Amino acid sequence: VDEGAVSSLRAAFGRLAQEIERDPETVLRHGALIRATPALQLRRIQRQAALEAGIAPLLAERFGAGGGTDLRPALLVACAFSAFRIAMLAWMQDGGAGSLTALVDDALGQLSAGFA
C-alpha cells in the first residue's frame, strides 16, 4: 500500500479529531442521540458508506489500481473509517476525557503498521 495514502488519511482524520475536540460537549450529546435513535444510526452508516465510496476512487488513482478487482483502496478507506470510529467510541465512553486526536492517531498508526 502506498504509504503516502495512509499518511494522507491519517492526517485528514487527525484534523477531524481536532475539530471535534473544539466542542466536545456538543459532540458527546450528538453521539448519545445517534446511539439512542435507530434511524440516526442508519443515516450515519449511510453517510459513512457514501464517504468511503467517494474516497476509494481517489486512492485507486493514487495506487494506479486496475479496475474493481484491486481491493486495496476500498479496504484501506473502510479500515481507516473503522479505526476512527473505534477511537471516537472509546473517547465518548470516557466522557470526552483525554485527547481524541491522540486516540485517532494511535488507531490509525496501528492500521498503518498493519498495512506496511
Shape: globular
Specify the structural class.
mainly alpha
Query: How much helix, percentage-wise, in residues?
Result: over 70%
Question: What is the H-and-E element order?
Answer: HHHHH
Instruction: Name the poorly predicted regions.
Output: none
Distance between the termini: 7 Å
Q: How many DSSP helices? A: 5
Query: What is the typical, i.e. mean, pLDDT?
Result: 90
Largest sheet: none
Number of strands: 0
Q: Give the amount of beta strand, in percent.
A: under 5%
> Over the alpha carbons, how many angstroms does the gyration radius reach?
15 Å
Task: Walk me through what this model shows.
The chain is 83% helix and 0% strand. It is mainly α and 116 residues long. The longest helix has 26 residues, at 38-63.
List the helices and strands and how they pair.
Layout: H1 3-21, H2 24-36, H3 38-63, H4 72-93, H5 100-115
